[in-house]
Amino acid sequence: MTPHLSHDRYQRGAARLADVDGPAGLAVVEGLAKSFPDFARYIVEFPFGDIYAREGLGLRERELATVAALCALGNAPPQLRVHVHAALHVGCTPVEVVEVVMQMAVYAGFPAALNGLAVVREVFAEAGIPLPLA
Amino acid sequence: MTPHLSHDRYQRGAARLADVDGPAGLAVVEGLAKSFPDFARYIVEFPFGDIYAREGLGLRERELATVAALCALGNAPPQLRVHVHAALHVGCTPVEVVEVVMQMAVYAGFPAALNGLAVVREVFAEAGIPLPLA
Amino acid sequence: MTPHLSHDRYQRGAARLADVDGPAGLAVVEGLAKSFPDFARYIVEFPFGDIYAREGLGLRERELATVAALCALGNAPPQLRVHVHAALHVGCTPVEVVEVVMQMAVYAGFPAALNGLAVVREVFAEAGIPLPLA
Amino acid sequence: MTPHLSHDRYQRGAARLADVDGPAGLAVVEGLAKSFPDFARYIVEFPFGDIYAREGLGLRERELATVAALCALGNAPPQLRVHVHAALHVGCTPVEVVEVVMQMAVYAGFPAALNGLAVVREVFAEAGIPLPLA
Amino acid sequence: MTPHLSHDRYQRGAARLADVDGPAGLAVVEGLAKSFPDFARYIVEFPFGDIYAREGLGLRERELATVAALCALGNAPPQLRVHVHAALHVGCTPVEVVEVVMQMAVYAGFPAALNGLAVVREVFAEAGIPLPLA
Amino acid sequence: MTPHLSHDRYQRGAARLADVDGPAGLAVVEGLAKSFPDFARYIVEFPFGDIYAREGLGLRERELATVAALCALGNAPPQLRVHVHAALHVGCTPVEVVEVVMQMAVYAGFPAALNGLAVVREVFAEAGIPLPLA
Fold it and tell me: N or C terminus: fewer CB in 10 A for chain C?
């Protein structure tokens, strides 16, 4: 474990956040920073500078895992919306996203999947992805 | 939607369950069937005959999503154990499994990730996978 | 386990859904089918064609159990609304519905019960059921 | 709202607890009282003296609702065990209990139902109820 | 355990509720009582007349604990709003409230903390507390 | 935001962890590090080096908030055990710990509080704290 400047960690996190979600992700963090600057910094540093910056798992798989978890938990629709968007941004196909959300009916029940699909529908509409998928 | 024999659906589910988890998965279902035969049949038919049998998402991605969801929910350790095993069985690397579980610290908190890692450690020990990973 | 046509299963589920929630339930499924036709079919087939179609438990008891579970989980208000409506539709009295929701204060805390009562109030208002109950 | 002696409320709760779960319920409360006497008193007074003592919903329905909620939440197996026992004690049939637990697969996912069935199997074994049910 | 008039218990709870949340808390209960009078009474009696009326833990600590729990559960935003307000009312500093909510990122994940901070921002805006805190 | 060496952050976290939980906390992290060294490092760095190291909220209040959250979530008994121990270590009285756990009956239901009290009883027994408290 080589010591490194935490400034590097923030920079690495900001770059990774841009990889994951494009300008939308950075905008969310900048909005948050106006009210809670320390927490905005932590979000860049730990989830993105530490976790998403790790090797060993692709960004596509990371986003599908996050969509699965947030859909299953069912109590964080705004973050699910961000990560459905991010999943598309890192190259997941619309079909893959829908499959993961439908699969959550098995593990967290049909209401969790239904409410996840409602979020998917909103994000797909903004992204111009027609439903039903072919 | 072409009508088809439900017997086919059960057969398809049993085959898919074997793909996902090998003999271990079928053994779980057979054990359950001794006490709750209808529910054992539903597990084969809906999760495996309907959901896992779908195209559009690879089995590796399906298992990583399931590991993520069960780790995040945190109230189903026996099923998390089954799916950590299944993730390895369908070709996820040990590193990928550990990465998904660690990532859950971001979305469901450190306790959820810690308890998920405890399950990973047990399954890896049975599978002869040494920790820490190289 | 006699093989049967899955088409029969869908038909059985659609009939059972109509028993449970009347035209409102079918309308929800038809709306969903415009975006996610496969998932709409699964909802008819598994929850209604398999589970609710079973003997051994009355529809009144099934709906009270569902209201209890959704109120306790607290993360699926749209589905709680559907099932408060359905509970009345299958013959639960308004008093029974309110009693189940209040009881959830014991098992899931007062906020879960309070948010459940807010849903009850909306559904009762649409149904013309005055509060407080006599 | 007529003022009444809180002693009456405790007595009413203890009587209701005995109705609901027989000597087993009272033994749980007495065991708890050795370490946490105030909390043991609250359990008698609020859940049983206030809620279960209410009219408008039968004890059978109350217990099925509680089994549903605890199975769906999935994080309170000891209390689920108590209420599976209580459900049988107030006259729910073994079939009704199993039906409610299986139904939770729809609302809280298959793992919640599976872990609920594991509790059911234990309680039924102690009660001499053979599985599978006829 | 000396018997006492339950009327006293209600009065004690109403006084404690006023201590905790000022006129806002009483207004919530009075609004609820129009639709669900028994449940409104229970809220005064058990949470406030029994629990919050106990000695051994200060009101500041009680409110910080409640904000922590509601933020972590994540499925009761209206009640979290009430208790962020109450925390300020009993003398918690704005910094203390924000610290507790940020800390929930560790135990319940970043989405729970983010959604908690969104509630904090609303309550602080109504209370004229500028963000970011100095 | 002044850049600083992350090594400092780890050192600060390790010191804070020792403040919070004494040798027991460091032992948990060292045990974890044998299997998952990166995750052990993150636990020191983010929860303790970032969050618990912040000013503005006392360690006593931090631990009471954590006990509240883990008791309410109900799916992380090992971590609840650690933090009941830590609460005592930072100077919370046994009464304060019991009060917080009992209060969770209001926000997360009686089963959550009961299972929390079972953890409290174990930790108090190890610490030689007799129950019931005087």
Answer: C
